[in-house]
User: What shape does this take?
Amino acid sequence: MNNHINIALIPLLPLASFVILGLFGRKYIKTFSGVIGVGSLLISALLSLQTAYQYFFVDGKLNGVYQKVIAFKYTWLSFSDSVSIDMGALLDPISVMMLVLVTFVSLMVHIFSLGYMKGEERYSTYYAFLGLFTFSMLGLVLSTNIFQIYMFWELVGVSSFLLIGYYFDKPSAVAASKKAFIVTRFADLGFLIGILVLSFQAHTLDFQTLIDTLSKPQTIGSFMGVSILTWGLTLVFMGGAGKSAMFPLHIWLPDAMEGPTPVSALIHAATMVVAGVYLVARLFPVFSVDEAALTIVTYVGLISALFAAVIACTQTDIKRVLAYSTMSQIGYMMFALGVSKYNGEEGLGFMGSMFHLFTHAFFKSLLFLCAGAVIHLVHSNEMKDMGGLRKYMPLTNAAFLIACLAIAGVPPFAGFFSKEEILLAAFHSNKLVYGVALFTSGLTAFYMFRLYFSIFWNKEAHLHGEHHGEGSFAMKLPLVLLAILSVGAGFIPFASFVTADGAALETHIDYAFSAAPVFFGVTGILLAAYLYKTENARPQNIANTFGGLYQSAYKKFYIDEIYLFITKKIVFNCIGRPAAWIDKNIINGTINLFGNTTVKLSESVKTIQSGKVQSYALYFISGALLLAALIIYAL
Amino acid sequence: MSQIPLTHILFLSTALFFIGVYGLLTRRNMITMLMAIELILNSVNINFIAFNKYLYPEKLNGIFFSIFIITIAAAEAAVAIAIIINLYRSHHSVDAEDASELKY
Assistant: This one.
């Protein structure tokens, strides 16, 4: 490939936008900030489309198998001949797919924000942060080196932190951003150790070499009865699970909804949270030789999918419902990877996972943007403040309905196809996983339509006075484009482009097999319609019947409380307090002792400097006499 | 004629030196202090001349030195009096105790 410059420009343009807006935005070009952000992203998106076309249709294939191409690579830090940290761009089906996805969704969010964030005090700062995020995410996706991915991994964490805490005068937003940062940092500790373990085994940090070395069958040591490879992969997966909000490291994601809604659409629905899935997919050849690590991935994904779906049924804040839904869908992607194998037909799970990642990004960011439009109108996140909005926002209503149908897996919307592949892969490998996944897909349909009916139907709307309807053209355009993709993305013959081993995969829709998921989905929808289409007492009755279960799901199964108990009661008292005591008394005490002694000494000698010339003369003469006496008598 | 022994002269210069030191430390009037300093310098001059005369009569080093000291003393007196005048202008006093602002 000879279009290195183009590929380098894809991440660098958002970076340029970040630098320009960050340095000059607030003072000089405030009103143009949005235009600069959108412009740079538009070029980036076009370049990545061109790159994707070039890769998938012109020169990516060799003997029918998509190759890994290193577009460019610079050695940044060289430790030894084999160990170095490089910065570069690696093109393979998943990274090119992610490239298109990230730039496109980011572009949509940039455009949407033109309307949504209009008139904000820190408008240009917002666009600067978005640019930083997009740059970091693209760098992460293109990484050639496991250390490069780690660096960009932290950068997306930082930009997520900045954007969650965008409304920094709101205490809840500050708390949420801190929580997100600390939880993901904690997970990244595992990631870093995992990187060190893996690269120690493979003697390299380079992805390609690392994967080649570790995916060969080999004898490798073990630690505490578990092979070192499993340890390394599990620790790396811990980082991925933190970023992707997998149980039990998911607690930051619902709180992250404090950020502006377009940010939630970009970072906490479509791109950053799937970084964990991407990481596992990137290292998939290594994961696929290690049964134990894959089992962990499967069950963590499965538990998260079910767990989040149950919670989502009870939440009343619309963005939180969407957050739990995101977590549930990422759980799908994870266990799909977990049940997959590397080669040929058995790599269906991998392909399904990537397919779902692709389609999910569209309909989930669409859901978030619609929620943004709704919140823009009613100025509240709570379901009880909504209802009957279909008359006020027909376009949003239609887009939201399409996205809900897509996520519920109703044919022919995008989610149907991708979920189908995942369920098929699960069916072939593990019946338990299949059963839970099927049930979860029913739940998904139920809570999404609960959300839909509560916002757009249910009771009559009671909007008072002036309202601005659905907002400007900038807010409508992304909804339309994303809605089109939510319908159409499923028809892309994804299996012929993105597979685990690069070779095209034959897939076909098996109608007999589809019957069950579609049945579950439709049941969920009908149930939601029965309960929520008009205002009635049934939901309350059901909640009362389930009493304890409903309460604990509503309280998110007390996971936050457990964390607080562990951190506040145990870590605080057993580690924090002793450490604080040592710091306060021993370390501070020593320093204070030195300081106080010096102060006291100088207090006592300072009277010598009296300002009286004659006393100085007296000291001088006494000194001279003393010296004279010494010289005469002592020497 | 019998010479005055060296010790007598050294005794004189020592007495002069300590009278000067006493004056410097006890007088508060700066002009008197300046005069006390002159006494000290002169006691040194006497020493120089006496040692020159008694130990190295064929040389003139000590004499030159004392002339040098007299010159310096003149210059020093000029500077000191200038300082005293300036002090008088700002403090309306030539008392050393009254100018003690430069302390801790």
Q: What stands out?
A: The interface with chain A takes residues 21, 24-25, 28, 33, 96-97, 99-104 of chain B (CB under 8 Å).
